[in-house]
Design goal:
The relative contact order is 0.14. 32% of the residues lie in helices and 32% in strands. The strands form 2 sheets. Strands 1, 2, 3, 4, 6, 7, 8 and 9 form an 8-stranded antiparallel sheet that branches. The chain has a 4-stranded antiparallel sheet with strand order 5-10-11-12, covered by helices on one side. With 203 residues, the protein is α+β, with helices and mostly antiparallel strands. It has one domain: minor pseudopilin epsh domain (minor pseudopilin epsh fold, 3-Layer(bab) Sandwich). This is Type II secretion system protein GspH. It comes from SAR92 bacterium BACL26 MAG-121220-bin70. Keywords: Membrane, Transmembrane, Transmembrane helix.
């Protein structure tokens, strides 16, 4: 093959291109990767925050249902935490009604199922006396007409109760938090409007 300046220039150009990226090009690529990673991380965090916020809103609606039923039916409605016997973790919140001097689990509304990362804490004022006195347990069975379920052989004692006169006992707040988030949601009863108020905070 004969040597020619054209062939030489083409070869030199190929060699320059094959030497790789320049420092500026590498910095630009790194900057783009960092920006995309930050955007992805922010999007993921926002998605989780929306999921946590949605669960808090659903819990607020669920408790407000109990308050409204208590007012309409003239009966106290309570909330009890059910836990996993193996993991000792709260799995759901169940509604109770005070019926025939007993706290009885109800089938409606259905229990509020907690998320796998959800934690519920009851920051309530301690009471020396029982909220409402209970009689000895009896086998009442299932009463479909009133949505009552009383298969438990032991006393059911609610963490808190909605009263027909528009108050809750005991006074305090319910804290909903999540294992992988600093967000915490507080549910506080407002006596003036007889409603639960939802507040969000960062630990």
């Amino acid at each position: 093959m004969l040597y020619s300046p054209a062939n030489s220039n083409a070869y030199l150009g190929f060699m320059k291109r094959s030497q790789g990226f320049t420092l500026i090009e590498l910095l630009i690529v790194v900057a783009i990767v960092v920006i995309l990673s930050a955007i992805s991380g922010l999007a993921i965090n926002q998605a989780f925050d929306r999921r946590y916020s949605a669960e808090a809103d659903k819990l607020l609606i669920w408790m407000q249902q109990l308050s409204e039923r208590s007012s309409l039916e003239g009966a106290a409605y309570g909330v009890v935490t059910e836990t996993d016997n193996d993991r000792r973790e709260a799995t759901q919140l169940r509604a109770l009604v005070y019926f025939n001097n007993r706290w009885i689990a109800v089938t409606s509304p259905e229990p509020f199922v907690l998320g796998t990362e959800s934690n519920v804490d009851w920051d309530m004022d301690m009471q020396e006396e029982e909220l409402l006195p209970q009689s000895q347990p009896q086998a009442l069975g299932l009463m479909d007409s009133d949505g009552l379920k009383a298969t438990e052989k032991e006393f059911l004692l609610p963490e808190m109760a909605f009263l027909p006169d528009g108050y809750i006992e005991p006074q305090g707040a319910i804290q909903l938090s999540f294992e992988s988030s600093e967000l915490t949601y507080s549910f506080v009863w407002d006596d003036e409007v007889s409603m639960m108020i939802l507040e969000s905070n960062i630990l």
